[in-house]
């Protein structure tokens, strides 16, 4: 059992997770003199970046802006080696941060929380881990992350398959040797786009099972040079100011020409067709996943959205040699941006290899697995390894997978059965002293997540400071504020292309999950201003006692 047990000293706060948000939360709350512990399911820091070790795992936000800004000590002490940092470097960065700030002594690793129950008599949260350790805390700070709960495809016979089965988000520490192996990979989302080219080079044969093609842009990754860092020293504050005042994206194409970068704050119709094409081309040549966000009305004007989509579609045929394969890979029938836009290196080029086959499972249905492989369209495809890049139970899964119970013993899973609701994506009525970073109703997954995490961590810490300074034992969103915010989140979607979304942004990838918009689509700047307003007015959306 842990030295902090149910009979020991009560913690001021317990932080769930030791990724980007969890480490910052632990540091921030501890700096205020609070007794805080973080519980982390993994054996080390990193959160999602600990678990996602698949070949080619890499961030699709530029590394210079995918890092902490809250501490000058951290700002000056780390140098990224590549424009888009690979998983190992990001995990090393977070490990360095934990050491630099002396955080490890207050983190309990290999501690997966299975139960969190609010004690109404004591106004405390009671926690239990998979290993049987118990904790009590007055404040529950969830930094579990929006994409940390992987899901497996529900295909008949999968348990009968005798080969190795791996989910990209639970990749073994020692990566498998694919030499001479027949490998199948399910999915063509962000993880698959990065893994496919590398696995294709290593294995004897790769079969890619695709349900829906995604929009894709090349990363154009490269090492960062001394000249890049000279530019960064000169432009760091300006770049961060732009990101803080940006409605949507937060970290792609930061070194682009000012006119092209600033176009994303303007309507596409302010430019001639030729100039719009030049802007798309410049963004595509520079790399990154923000080609389609070139103008501010990309998700509001169907014609603007379709123009960006057509631009990206046109690139496929210039790379993929086989016309039938190129057609399969061409995304149609949905608006750009309503599914996660993917970024990678040599993804389309991989389908020019003789040992790679693409199967469109909408045309050739996966019937079932057998001990030897999988039957598709009546034929058996023999496999030695199956890689599932089937995604996550996003934004809600990290908390609904826990037996999390608030006032009256009601579970959060039950409370969110018809769709998640929250105030500011941070607090849930009926669950006092619970605060979420990256929760449903916040904009994190549609922005630079690290930037939004930082803002939310500081805001939540300020709310907790308010409670502590006023001697308040209980804090939760009012029902009225929660209903108003949830209504606002859903109304923002109306009249935009987000209404047509059929992706994990609305929970469509999880059978039985209610189809409602999970993220705040109003943009980072609007969200930050709304949170600042809430604080400035004395937290009118919260009830204290």
Description:
Helix content is 31%, strand content 16%. It has 545 residues and is of the alpha/beta class. It is globular and about 70 Å long.
**Number of helical regions:** 16
> What's the alpha carbon Rg, rounded to whole Å?
23 Å
Distance separating the two termini: 33 Å
Average pLDDT works out at: 94
Strand content: 15-25%
The rough form would be described as globular
| Structural class assignment | alpha/beta
State the low-pLDDT regions, or none. 1-7
Sheet bearing the most strands, described?
8 strands, mixed
Count the strands?
20
Oligomer: single chain
Give the fraction of residues assigned to helices.
Answer: 25-40%
């Amino acid at each position: 059992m842990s030295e902090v047990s149910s009979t020991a000293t009560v913690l001021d706060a317990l932080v769930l997770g030791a990724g980007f948000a969890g480490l910052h939360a632990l540091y921030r709350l501890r700096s205020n003199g609070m007794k805080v512990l973080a519980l982390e399911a993994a054996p080390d820091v990193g959160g999602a970046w600990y678990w996602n070790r698949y070949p080619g795992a890499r961030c699709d936000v530029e590394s210079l802006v995918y890092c902490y800004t809250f501490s000058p000590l951290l700002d000056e002490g780390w140098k990224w080696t590549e424009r888009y940092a690979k998983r190992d470097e990001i995990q090393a960065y977070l490990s360095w941060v934990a050491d630099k700030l002396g955080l490890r002594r207050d983190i309990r690793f290999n501690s997966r929380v299975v139960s969190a129950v609010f004690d109404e008599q004591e106004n405390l949260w009671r926690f239990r881990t998979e290993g049987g350790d118990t904790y009590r805390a007055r404040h529950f700070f969830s930094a579990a992350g929006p994409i940390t709960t992987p899901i497996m495809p529900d295909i008949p016979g999968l348990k009968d398959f005798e080969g190795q089965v791996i989910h990209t988000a639970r990749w073994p520490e020692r990566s498998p040797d694919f030499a001479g192996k027949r490998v199948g990979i399910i999915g063509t989302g962000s993880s698959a786009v990065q893994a496919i080219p590398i696995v294709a080079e290593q294995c004897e044969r790769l079969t890619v099972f695709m349900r829906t093609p995604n929009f894709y842009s090349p990363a154009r990754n490269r090492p960062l040079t001394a000249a890049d860092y000279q530019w960064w020293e000169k432009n760091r504050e300006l770049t961060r100011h732009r990101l803080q005042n940006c409605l949507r994206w937060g970290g792609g194409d930061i070194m682009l020409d000012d006119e092209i970068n600033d176009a994303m704050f303007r309507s596409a119709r302010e430019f001639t067709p030729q100039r719009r094409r030049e802007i798309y081309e410049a963004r595509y040549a520079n790399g990154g996943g923000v080609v389609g966000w070139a103008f501010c009305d990309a998700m509001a004007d169907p014609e603007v959205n379709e123009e960006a989509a057509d631009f990206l579609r046109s690139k496929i045929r210039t790379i993929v040699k086989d016309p039938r394969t190129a057609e399969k890979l061409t995304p149609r029938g949905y608006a750009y941006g309503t599914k996660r836009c993917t970024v990678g290196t040599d993804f389309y080029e991989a389908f020019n290899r003789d040992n790679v086959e693409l199967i469109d499972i909408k045309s050739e249905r996966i019937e079932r697995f057998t001990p030897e492989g999988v039957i598709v369209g009546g034929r058996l495809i023999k496999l030695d390894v199956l890689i599932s890049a089937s995604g996550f139970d996003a934004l809600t899964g990290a908390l609904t997978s826990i037996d999390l119970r608030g006032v009256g013993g009601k579970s959060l899973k039950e409370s969110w059965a018809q769709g998640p609701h929250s105030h500011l994506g941070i607090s849930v009525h009926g669950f006092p002293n619970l605060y979420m970073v990256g929760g449903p109703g916040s904009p994190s997954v549609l922005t630079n997540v690290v930037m939004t995490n930082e803002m939310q961590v500081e805001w939540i810490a300020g709310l907790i400071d308010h409670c502590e300074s006023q001697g308040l034992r209980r804090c939760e969103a009012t029902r009225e504020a929660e209903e108003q915010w949830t209504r606002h989140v859903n109304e923002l979607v109306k009249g935009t292309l987000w209404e047509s979304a059929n992706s994990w942004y609305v929970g469509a990838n999880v059978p039985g999950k209610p189809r409602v918009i999970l993220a705040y689509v109003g943009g980072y700047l609007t969200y930050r201003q709304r949170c600042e307003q809430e604080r400035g007015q004395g937290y009118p959306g919260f009830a204290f006692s």
